[in-house]
Amino acid sequence: YPGMNFTHLNKYIFRFGNGQIPVTEYGVDDIELTKELILMNQSSQVLIKYTLKDAPNSVSLRFQPLLAFRNINSLSQANLDVNAKVYPVKNGIKSQLYNHYPYLFLQFSKTTQFSYAPDWFFDMEYSQDKKNGNKFKEDLFVPGFFQVNLQKGESIIFSASLQEEEIANLSSQFDKEVQAIYSKTSKN
């Protein structure tokens, strides 16, 4: 948000590794959570794996997707043309914010609860763009939020894709892509 410094949020990050894949480890009190991110090589898909490493009890996670639906050379602004409708798919939703864009499928490897609560997040700032003298403020659309409970040692995989994914395959898809990345980097 305008003028906001995110260092107060960094107090929950106790380790970040940007090796073959970005891995962020969070700690809040006696809870430890790991996030691993992969941009799929052969498809328009991102996979994010969250693992609850340690916790005294189950933990409820809330996922609130911030959507832009734009090309790389522009920033989105709140508008009345947005299509706020979402449609259920297996373990998630699909959304087509504008008629000329494809559907975006937001799915999880396990059942989550989706709460429809369309809204805009205004004036998100991109500090590097601001530093470079480019346009740097954007409004992002939120269709609602997902909520899920995890037990200690349990993982969940989030997929954002331009096609509906087979939920049962998300874990193996993630593992195969990680293996391919590590194989490729070990050969270089």
Largest β sheet strand count, sense and barrel closure: 8 strands, antiparallel
Please give the order of strands in the largest beta sheet: 1-2-3-4-11-8-7-6
Summed over residues and divided by their number, the pLDDT gives a mean of 92
Uncertain parts: none
Rounded to the nearest angstrom, the distance between the terminal CA atoms is 40 Å
How would you describe this structure to a colleague?
The protein is built from three helices and eleven strands; from the N terminus they run αβββββββββαββα. It has 188 residues and is mainly β. The chain is globular. The model has no long low-confidence stretch (mean pLDDT 92). The longest helix has 18 residues, at 170-187. The protein has helices at residues 7-10, 127-131, 170-187; strands at 13-18, 22-28, 31-39, 45-54, 59-63, 86-89, 92-95, 104-108, 113-125, 137-150, 155-161. Helix content is 14%, strand content 45%. The strands form two sheets. The chain has an eight-stranded antiparallel beta sheet, with helices on one face. It has a three-stranded antiparallel beta sheet with strand order 5-10-9.
